[in-house]
């Protein structure tokens, strides 16, 4: 029988959240090192201009009798296959099979794997028409950056087979894609400029950064501080999103800016790209004018290994958390502010909030002000109308609707946003390299309090919030998104060839 042909078409990114991947790893390597094991699984997906993004949503683990424990390879019972197929008629997710290879064996499909995949691609199409069928192989191998979990995969979708070309497992840089079961190219030798980083973390840390992508929502005071830290450390690709431009009022906080940028109203993302080009020209910087959750921005940021929220917007914070949950990617939200009145500063606050796919959302955490949220989604005309109605209410001796009040200005200064951005970038580097993991859930620092007034505020999910149900469901849980982009927002656009 001829092998399934290797596809060279659109890229396919496979994403795992930690809870599902940890269970999967324990399950498929259950008989390691000499014998294989397997499980069916469910997947979410999204088509993007770069290709297909697929996310592990759930495992349909085998029960006794589903797999033959008396053989070394994987032998699946007809009853197990039929149970999964019938379940697919009741859910909207893609279906797939994941199995391991023995110690030392690369995740290269065998002729038996080819036969199995041809059969299942056709079989599940009858129960889950139009949905992808995914087949994954996992191996535990010695790689160029130490011990690795090598993953190969192929997907049958839209009448063609596609290879998994990239794998992103939340906080697991040791999980590496082996397209077609072949070892990826050797990583680059670290340059001398990162000698201190490699001395502290090891050369494999730099190599992991080189193959990583970080997406940042916001390129103002906080984002512009994080960007150079990530670029100098060696992160290979940055995706930077912001809808605003440089102005006189933010030059004090905007790293990489010059006074002429305010005069020319240069987009903040352009300032960021120019800044990186001057210090780390080998870093790929993709810049977008837009906001989450515009579809084009979702398409861009879900290509990243980590998502950073660097704005003071409640809408942005909600969208970052939603993307982290549905597309199985770790996110870190950060910001800062000054507290006080009448010229007396009582607090200088830096906050970093972890949004792993399994964490509670900002609404569960009480971080969203409903009035502020509604205000942020209003158009300029709607705000003017609300203001006029408020003035009329006051004239009638009535209390105006709170929605008509001005959105409060968050007071902050450059050293606070710089502290927040650089701290967040440092924790992201820890995630990407696997060298350290933030132990907090919602960290608050007061820069003028004793011992920085550091507190963690772990919070639980409330009731039956969707944030506890649709981890990794991707577009198949789009109806749980907290809001849709209002029609008055300017269309998102990618900046391709502007001069910097």
UniProtKB/TrEMBL annotation:
UniProt domain THIF-type NAD/FAD binding fold: residue ranges: 199-445
Domain JAB: 81-121
Claim: Metal-binding is one of the keywords in the record: yes
Keyword terms: Hydrolase, Metal-binding, Metalloprotease, Protease, Zinc
TM spans (from-to): none
GO terms classed as biological process: cyclic threonylcarbamoyladenosine biosynthetic process; proteolysis
Protein name in UniProt: JAB domain-containing protein similar to deubiquitination enzymes
Phylogenetic classification of the source organism: Bacteria, Pseudomonadati, Pseudomonadota, Alphaproteobacteria, Hyphomicrobiales
């Amino acid at each position: 029988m001829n092998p399934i042909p290797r596809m060279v078409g659109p890229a396919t990114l496979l994403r795992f959240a930690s809870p599902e991947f940890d269970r999967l790893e324990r399950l498929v390597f259950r008989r390691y090192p000499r014998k294989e094991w397997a499980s069916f699984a469910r997947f979410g997906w999204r088509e993007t201009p770069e290709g297909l993004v697929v996310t592990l949503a759930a495992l349909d683990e085998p029960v006794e009798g589903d797999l033959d424990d008396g053989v070394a390879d994987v032998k699946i019972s007809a009853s197990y296959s039929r149970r999964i197929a019938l379940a697919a008629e009741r859910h909207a997710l893609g279906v797939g099979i994941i199995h391991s290879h023995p110690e030392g064996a690369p995740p290269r499909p065998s002729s038996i794997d080819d036969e199995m995949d041809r059969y299942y691609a056709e079989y599940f199409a009858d129960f889950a028409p139009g949905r992808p069928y995914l087949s994954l192989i996992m191996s535990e191998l010695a790689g160029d950056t130490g011990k690795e979990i090598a993953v190969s995969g192929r997907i049958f979708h839209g009448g063609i087979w596609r290879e998994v070309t990239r794998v992103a497992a939340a906080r697991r840089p040791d999980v590496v894609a082996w397209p077609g079961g072949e070892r990826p190219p050797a990583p680059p030798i670290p340059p001398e400029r990162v000698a201190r980083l490699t001395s502290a973390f090891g050369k494999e840390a730099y190599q992991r950064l080189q193959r990583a992508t970080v997406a940042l929502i916001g390129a103002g005071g906080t984002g512009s501080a994080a960007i150079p830290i990530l670029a100098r450390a060696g992160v290979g690709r940055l995706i930077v999103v912001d809808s605003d431009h440089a102005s006189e009022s933010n030059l004090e906080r905007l790293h990489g800016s010059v006074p002429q940028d305010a005069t020319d109203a240069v987009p903040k993302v352009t300032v960021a790209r120019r800044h990186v080009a001057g210090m780390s020209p080998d870093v790929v910087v993709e810049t977008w004018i837009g906001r989450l959750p515009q579809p084009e921005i979702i398409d861009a940021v879900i290509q990243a290994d980590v998502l950073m929220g660097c704005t003071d917007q409640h809408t942005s914070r909600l969208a970052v958390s939603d993307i982290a949950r549905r597309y199985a990617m770790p996110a870190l939200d950060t910001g800062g502010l000054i507290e006080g009145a009448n010229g007396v500063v009582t607090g200088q606050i830096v906050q970093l909030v972890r949004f792993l796919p399994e964490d509670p959302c900002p609404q569960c955490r009480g971080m969203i002000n409903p009035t502020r949220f509604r205000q942020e989604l209003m158009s300029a005309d709607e705000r003017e109308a609300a203001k006029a109605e408020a003035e009329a209410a006051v004239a009638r001796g009535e209390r105006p609707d709170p929605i008509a009040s001005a959105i409060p200005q968050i007071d902050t200064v450059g050293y606070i946003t710089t502290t927040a951005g650089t701290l967040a970038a440092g924790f992201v580097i820890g995630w990407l390299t696997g060298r350290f993991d933030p132990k907090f859930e919602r960290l608050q620092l007061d820069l003028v309090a004793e011992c920085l007034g550091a507190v963690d505020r772990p919070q639980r999910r409330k009731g039956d919030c969707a944030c506890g149900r649709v981890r990794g469901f991707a577009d198949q849980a789009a109806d749980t998104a907290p809001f849709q982009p209002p029609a008055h927002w300017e269309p998102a656009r990618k900046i391709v060839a502007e001069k910097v």
